């Protein structure tokens, strides 16, 4: 069955709950045009709308202007012993106007939805999100003057909820994160709005060939470094869109850089990638906000990446706390997941006597998670012991050896 998204666009039928069909969900029966065939009359339906096109042009202009106003994000160095001959960088995506990597994605999704005719004046945009994407989409919805509803787990941090509401969005909670998709689709039908569906469209909306995407930006910023072509770029996966963009760009530009994706506990990307099973699922949600999913998302492109690591949540927290000690910056848990994997790759390069560079991402700021990843009481409640992982990082930085 072909299902239309919001007012005009289409999305996968499985995302729409079958018990709540839309009036636009089913195509009308084919109507006989025998008289037209006999007479040769040309059928002509003109749906052009001058007022809508004027609104659309202004909305696209506003979104593109945001990109012009936003300077590129910084590439920070993580201090490593000079004798190793290895440079470790973090692409600091927290400096975007909405404070996270998801600002890039939200901008691309809004342009994609607008140019496809899916986002319409006064109709709400609805998104399934664990927080950061919703913050960024609320910002762009306010920018173009449409309502925004974020469908999110009830466990989402209070600070993210505050930021969504600050940008004019509405938070709609679900108790089970696996129900976000279904609830978002239901709300789109109920309101006549557009379900953005980042998990399906992230890898399609982003221009992976260039246009200052995150991959092109990284390579441009490395041009004057001693190792301008990194041995590895490490990403984490929420939608899978960032890893797809990085991998496609590397292949397109014919670089030798490899792409590693780090996956947290309670996520099925690693299992789906290693087994080749696209239907693998997970029974509970990720504790690392913004990454890790209970199913293999459509925007995750397994064939494009080279390596995956399954990172314990305690290791992610230990790594993000080590980052603060190293450079004086707090970051979210997903940054720790990627940094842990990047440090493991660095240890392998040291052991093999290889020089080069490694890049990972600083996804969002840690002040959104003071009550979680920087709270010892939260760690105790979750049963997470960061001590052995902290010791492993300290051992690596002191000796160059990753503990067995």
Task: Write a short abstract of this structure.
This protein is an alpha/beta fold and 404 residues long. The protein has helices spanning 34-39, 50-69, 102-115, 132-144, 158-166, 180-191, 198-205, 214-221, 241-252, 269-275, 313-327, 333-352, 376-382, 387-399, and strands at 3-5, 9-11, 74-78, 86-92, 125-128, 148-153, 170-174, 194-195, 232-236, 258-264, 307-311, 356-362. A six-stranded mixed beta sheet has the order 3-4-12-9-10-11, with helices on both faces. The chain has a four-stranded parallel beta sheet with strand order 7-6-5-8, sandwiched between helices.
What would you say this structure looks like, in words?
It is a single chain. With 404 residues, the protein is α/β, with parallel strands linked by helices. It has 2 domains: 75-97 and 205-397, Rossmann fold (3-Layer(aba) Sandwich), CATH 3.40.50.1100; 102-202, Rossmann fold. It has helices spanning 34-39, 50-69, 102-115, 132-144, 158-166, 180-191, 198-205, 214-221, 241-252, 269-275, 313-327, 333-352, 376-382, 387-399; strands at 3-5, 9-11, 74-78, 86-92, 125-128, 148-153, 170-174, 194-195, 232-236, 258-264, 307-311, 356-362. A 6-stranded mixed beta sheet has the order 3-4-12-9-10-11, with helices on both faces. Strand 10, helix 10 (269-275) and strand 11 form a beta-alpha-beta unit. Helix 2 packs antiparallel against helix 3 (102-115). The protein is globular, with a radius of gyration of 23 Å. The model is unreliable at 1-28 (pLDDT under 50).
């Amino acid at each position: 069955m072909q299902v239309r998204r919001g007012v005009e666009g289409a999305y996968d039928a499985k995302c729409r709950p079958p018990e709540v069909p839309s009036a636009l969900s089913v195509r009308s029966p084919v109507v006989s045009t025998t008289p037209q065939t006999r007479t040769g009359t040309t059928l002509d339906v003109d749906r052009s709308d001058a007022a809508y096109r004027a609104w659309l042009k202004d909305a696209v202009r506003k979104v593109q202007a945001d990109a012009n106003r936003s300077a590129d994000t910084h590439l920070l160095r993580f201090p490593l012993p000079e004798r190793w001959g290895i440079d470790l960088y973090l692409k600091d995506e927290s400096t975007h106007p909405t404070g996270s990597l998801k600002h890039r994605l939200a901008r691309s999704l809004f342009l994609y939805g607008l140019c496809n005719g899916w986002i319409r004046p006064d109709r709400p945009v609805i998104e399934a999100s664990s927080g950061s994407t919703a913050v960024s989409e609320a910002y762009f919805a306010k920018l173009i003057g449409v309502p925004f509803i974020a469908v999110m787990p009830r466990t989402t941090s209070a600070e993210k909820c505050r930021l969504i509401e600050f940008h004019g969005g509405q938070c709609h909670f679900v108790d089970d994160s696996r129900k976000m998709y279904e609830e978002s689709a239901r709300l789109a039908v109920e309101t006549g709005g557009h379900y953005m569906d980042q998990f399906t469209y992230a890898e399609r909306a982003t221009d992976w060939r260039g246009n200052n995407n995150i991959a092109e930006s990284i390579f441009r910023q490395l041009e004057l470094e001693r190792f301008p072509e990194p041995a590895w770029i490490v990403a984490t996966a929420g939608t899978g869109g960032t890893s797809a963009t990085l991998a496609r760009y590397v292949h397109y530009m014919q670089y030798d850089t490899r792409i590693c994706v780090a996956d947290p506990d309670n996520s099925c990307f690693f299992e789906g990638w290693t087994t080749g099973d696209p239907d693998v699922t997970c029974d509970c949600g990720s504790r690392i906000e913004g990454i890790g999913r209970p199913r293999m998302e459509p925007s995750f492109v397994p064939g494009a990446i080279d390596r995956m690591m399954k990172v314990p949540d305690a290791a992610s927290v230990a790594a993000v706390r080590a980052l603060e000690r190293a450079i004086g910056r707090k970051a979210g848990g997903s940054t720790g997941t990627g940094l842990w994997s990047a440090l493991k790759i660095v240890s392998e390069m040291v052991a093999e006597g290889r020089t080069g560079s490694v890049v990972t991402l600083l996804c969002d700021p840690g002040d959104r998670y003071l009550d979680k990843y920087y709270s010892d009481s939260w760690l105790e409640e979750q049963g997470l012991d960061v001590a052995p992982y902290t010791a492993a990082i300290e051992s690596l930085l002191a000796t160059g050896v990753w503990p067995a």
